[in-house]
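Researcher: Go.
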Amino acid sequence: MVKLALVGMSGGVDSSVAAYLVREAGYDTTGATMRLYDNETIGLDNSKTCCSLSSIEDACAVANRLGISYIVYDMRKEFRREVIDRFVDAYEHGATPNPCIACNKYLKFDALYRLSARDLLAGDLTADAPPLSIATGHYARIERDRGSGRFLLRKGIDPGKDQSYFLCDLTQEQLSRTLFPLGALEKSEVREIAASLGLVTAKKKESQDICFVPGGDYASFIRGYTGHEYPNGDFVDAAGNVMGEHKGIIKYTIGQRKGLGLALKKPAYVCALDVPNNRVILGDNEDLFKRELTASEFNWIAMDVPASDIRASARIRYRHHEAPARIIPLGPDRVRIEFDEPQRAMPRGQSVVVYDGEYVVGGGIID
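Model: Structure:
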């Protein structure tokens, strides 16, 4: 039976090589790029970020080089609603969101799959239809557990590129129809493959910024996007003593030290955001360490909701090292995590991902 695969192509080297590997694995392969925004929306005339107009040109050139079909899906409305609006709302309410996880959850592995099913299968998802998979250039692996039959999410072998953290919201159904062909490769190998194929993306640099905030200035983006001004307010200490004036609460996140614009006798760190009173609460570095958090919208991957506490390790940011912890279920999609040792800066809105060695147990949003 023919196997169909739609490869999400962002215009970078990773998704370019993923498309090649999927084609070589025998899939009837179609490349697709999601058009997520107009360059004017993110305040640039010519952006090189993923899924921008210039990246669409690169992805199309790669598809032509590989001899595969190529589609561009206009998903600007969906991206605005599911990713940008959520991002802005979180910052306005004192949270620190992770838009890449939201994009994976709502667009790459949901909306994109439904659109590809419409176009490649004429909407036929019955048992008699050819199997359809979504493939991306993420550095992660998917395995099937022989005993339970569950699909497991595993770290990519390149520790510097592992992206399993960003995939913590994938459901069993989504994992069952997803391919990560780069999971067993090092980044250097991926570039070598691209160069050997003569792909235009072989030496393309990768952005470290959020795609719709090139340059990383979140506050300027939010002001430009909403047209709102966010008023100045007070910096205060834990006792409420005024220490200076901040420049709008959206400019700050938990753990921040730089950019406060204060001349103090010792370093000060953002320890809390009091949105109703428009205050930024400062403290010492020691004040940022806590042993517990609760998380909602928790998606269990490696198991069903356990009947009792489990031991695992948890990561509170992408670049954070996992720390040993006790995971306590509080309901079907809510947990409390008690770390063995205090952890620094656990901002509300950030994702916490739980690991058992190389395998993702699940993940949710810190609240």
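Model: The domain at 230-283 is CATH 2.30.30.280 (SH3 type barrels.).
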